[in-house]
Amino acid sequence: MTAALLLFLAAAVVPVFFGRVQAAPKWLAAQGLALGWITLVQHGSLNAHALAAGAEVLVVRALLTPRWLRGAIQRRAEPDFELMPSNLFAWSIATALLVLAFQFGAPAMSEQHALTLGVVAATAAVAVLLLASNDAPPAQLVALLVLENAIGLFETLLPHPWPLSVHGALSAIYLLTIGVGAWLIGAPDGGPVAVVDTPDDVHEVDR
C-alpha cells in the first residue's frame, strides 16, 4: 500500500512542478490506478465488495476520465502550456505547502494511516495551488479532478467501507464533473466566429 500511496503522490506533485497540460490525462490515469489499488487492499481482504469498489474506481478514474479529458484538450487545440508557472517563487510555495501538509499528519505518525493523511493533505494543497496559479480552463479542470482524487483517498481512511450505493453515487458525481468540465473546455475561448456577408451596394443615407 505504501507503493500505491507514493505513486498517487507522485502523480499529483510531479505534473505541478514539471508537467504540461497535454500530459495531464496520463497523470490522472496514474492517480486512478493508485487509488484503485488502495481501494482493493485497504481492508486487507479481497472480498466481493472490495473488488466491485476497486473496479469502479479503475473504470471511472483511470480509464474514462483521462480519455474524456484528453479529447476535450485536443478539441480545444491550444498550445501545450505548463500546468504551473515554472519560477522559483511558485516552486517555493509548492514546496512549503508539501512540508506543511506532511507536518499536518505528524501528530498521528504512530498510527497506521499517517502516510495516507499526509498524501491527502499534500495532494489537496498542490491542487489548490494550481487553482490559484493558473486560470486556464483545462488547468482548472485538472486541479479540480486532482482535488476530487484527494477526497477519494481520504475516504479510504474510514474504518469500514461504504456501501456500494454510496460508491456509485460518488462515481456519478465524479463523472458529472468531468463530463460537464470536458464539455465546457472542449472549444477555444470565444467559440466559433460567425461570418456575416454584407451587400456590396451599401449606399450612404442622406442626413
Walk me through what this model shows.
This protein has one domain (2-185). Helix content is 69%, strand content 0%. It contains 7 helices and no strands. It is globular.
Major beta sheet summary: none
Helix-strand category? mainly alpha
Helical residues, percent: 55-70%
Write the H/E string, N to C: HHHHHHH
Brief characterization of the structure:
This protein is mostly helical and 207 residues long.
Q: What are the main properties of this structure?
A:
about 210 residues; mainly alpha; 7 helices; globular; disordered C terminus
Which helices and strands occur, and which strands form pairs?
Elements: H1 2-18, H2 24-41, H3 48-76, H4 88-104, H5 114-133, H6 137-155, H7 164-185
Helix pairs in contact: 1-2, 1-5, 2-3, 2-6, 3-7, 4-5, 5-6, 6-7
